[in-house]
Amino acid sequence: MKGLKSTTWILLIVSLSFSLVNGHGGSHDEDETDDTHNSLHSKGLVLVKIWCLLILLVSTFAGGVSPYFYRWNESFLLLGTQFAGGVFLGTSLMHFLSDSNETFGDLTTKTYPFAFMLASAGYLLTMLGDCIVILVTKGVEKEAKVDVEEGIGDDGHGNATANLNPAFLKTSSLGDAVLLILALCFHSVFEGIAIGVADTKADAWRNLWTISLHKIFAAVAMGIALLRMIPKRPLVATVAYSFAFAVSSPIGVGIGIAIDATTEGAVADWIYAISMGIACGVFVYVAINHLISKGFKPQESCYFDTPFYKFLSVLFGVGVISVVMIWD
């Protein structure tokens, strides 16, 4: 039954990805010939981005609180997270980087690799966010280890929590908690901006399913970790953390929409090229460091927890994006 459920979920995700591609309404050539519906400032495009904002908020929040009501199959989460990493990696290099580089080529005659430089900057910015998380949680991690050694750091069933991500542990002060949430959601805001500055409806929908796929898996993993660490009050904490995590990408979408609404012509093109370049670096960092290298850690022995199956999952994710780009 667990294997059947996992297979069903994987088929649903793949079906969703291809249905969104087919629902884009054609290629960029068709989009560019319909200025009324697909211009940067058209009401239709803004409406699509608002729908993306709402879908991101609801889907991520639902994923975060779902472990309280549903026991997820760990094999599915393990391979699904790796698949999401492949999707992120393929999207960043084949979509964001190529669009940014192409736009810079139209805007300037200089041969400087602006898109690649901005991708490097986005990678470093996201890395800086992780450094902030490490600084904030450094003392909390030490406290957690002391608790485990004293026998009080378990999940209520005798299972130690020392191997869990300290980023989700209760911080020592309100200021630390606020800083922690801001650092954890830093890259999510830039992910949302990628939707907000999309120049066509097709790009907005494509960016939506890419980002939401990653965020749902991340939210589910976060909810599971919270249930293991704070069993005495899991629902309240799960709802609070899930909402904070869920609202970060929609904030980015809103920022992107505001950017589009206040810029026109060459300025809008420059902002789009810069945003896509930075988003590429953010996506590469998240794909490699958060999804592929770390990913979801099963608590029990898992048959699929091997480098080969992880590679196949990442390969499948990159392959899906490769096929999707045929219609770009």
Structure description:
Pfam families: Zip. It is found in: Membrane. Keywords: Membrane, Signal, Transmembrane, Transmembrane helix. This protein has 328 residues and is mostly helical. It has one domain. The protein is built from twelve helices and no strands. It has helices at 2-22, 28-33, 35-38, 43-69, 74-107, 114-149, 174-184, 186-196, 201-229, 234-261, 265-292, 307-324. Helix 1 runs antiparallel to helix 9 and helix 6 (114-149) packs parallel to helix 11. The longest helix has 36 residues, at 114-149. It is globular, with a radius of gyration of 20 Å. It starts with a helix and ends with a helix. 45% of the residues are buried. Residues 6-40, 148-164 and 169-174 have low confidence and may be disordered.
